[in-house]
């Protein structure tokens, strides 16, 4: 049975590769329980990131579109904001992994059957017998050989931290509304490509209390990707996936 496991794995891998591609992610979110959704502003949670840069604005807009589906309101001017969401993101160094597995070697294992035919030729007082035997070979697994599969993985992450801005301005202390971490490991080192998929897949968990790490996935052609990218102008309600 152990010898058959690699065969089953390869078979399932072929089936999965023939289906739609999807991204797997983990979400860990904790919330204070105090609901506050009005007049938020999104600012960088990383040093030396310009909040007006095109790259940051693109990522911030993904967050806005996701949270707007759940009633959040945003302002552009931090002076008019009641709360701030600090956005941090990044991608780890590539890690190469090698998997070794066994594959069967097919060949002749013996003979399953045989049959004999013959002819007799007579010439006067002489007779000649011609006999021919045919063997039917059988085939099966005659052994195993090792193969290796090498691939590179990247860790992609998005961190969101929402705080009460008015409370901080008054008391000079941080009061958190919620904290959400989104992490994914995969073959793509292009964070800009992966970012909207991570947000679309985890949007219903952002700002909530998950109580534990939640593992989810989103298909490449999921319709919520269009919402996050701004291809669908009107917000939808009752999102649950």
Task: Outline the structure in words.
It is a single chain. With 241 residues, this protein is of the alpha+beta class. The chain folds into two domains: 20-99 and 152-229, 2-Layer Sandwich (Double Stranded RNA Binding Domain), CATH 3.30.160.670; 102-147, no CATH class. 22% of the residues lie in helices and 45% in strands. The chain has five helices and seven strands, in the order αββαβββαβαβα. Strands 1, 2, 3, 4, 5, 6 and 7 form a seven-stranded mixed beta sheet that branches. Helix 2 packs parallel to helix 4. The protein is rod-shaped. The chain starts with a helix and ends in a 12-residue tail after the last helix. Residues 13-18 and 233-241 have low confidence and may be disordered.
How is this structure best summarized?
This protein has five helices and seven strands. The protein has 241 residues and is α+β, with helices and mostly antiparallel strands.
What are the defining features of this structure?
241 residues; Double Stranded RNA Binding Domain; disordered C terminus; 7 strands; 2 domains; 22% helix; 5 helices; 7-stranded mixed sheet
Topology, please?
Layout: H1 4-17, E1 22-31, E2 40-44, H2 54-68, E3 83-91, E4 95-123, E5 126-164, H3 165-171, E6 176-186, H4 191-202, E7 214-219, H5 224-229
Parallel strand pairs: 2-3
Antiparallel strand pairs: 1-6, 1-7, 3-5, 4-5, 5-6
């Amino acid at each position: 049975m152990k010898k058959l496991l690699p065969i089953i794995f390869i078979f399932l891998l072929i089936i999965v590769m023939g289906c739609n591609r999807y991204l797997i992610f983990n979400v860990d979110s904790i919330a204070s329980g105090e609901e506050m959704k009005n007049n938020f502003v999104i600012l960088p949670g990383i040093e030396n990131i310009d909040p007006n840069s095109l790259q940051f604005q693109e990522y911030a807009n993904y967050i806005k579109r996701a949270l707007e589906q759940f009633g959040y309101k945003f302002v552009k001017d931090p002076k008019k904001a009641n709360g701030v969401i600090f956005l941090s993101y990044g991608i780890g160094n590539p890690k190469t992994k090698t998997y070794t597995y066994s594959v069967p070697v097919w060949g002749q294992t013996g003979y399953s059957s045989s049959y004999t035919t013959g002819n007799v030729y007579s010439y006067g007082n002489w007779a000649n017998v011609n006999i021919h035997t045919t063997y039917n070979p059988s085939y099966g697994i005659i052994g195993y050989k090792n193969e290796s599969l090498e691939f590179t993985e990247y860790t992609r992450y998005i961190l969101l931290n929402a705080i009460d801005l008015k409370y901080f301005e008054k008391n000079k202390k941080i009061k958190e509304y919620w904290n959400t971490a989104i992490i994914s490991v995969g073959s793509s080192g292009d964070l800009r490509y992966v970012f909207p998929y991570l947000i679309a897949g985890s949007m219903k968990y952002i700002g909530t209390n998950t109580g534990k790490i939640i593992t989810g996935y989103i298909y490449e052609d999921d319709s919520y990707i269009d919402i996050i990218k701004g291809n669908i102008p009107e917000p939808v309600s009752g999102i649950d996936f």
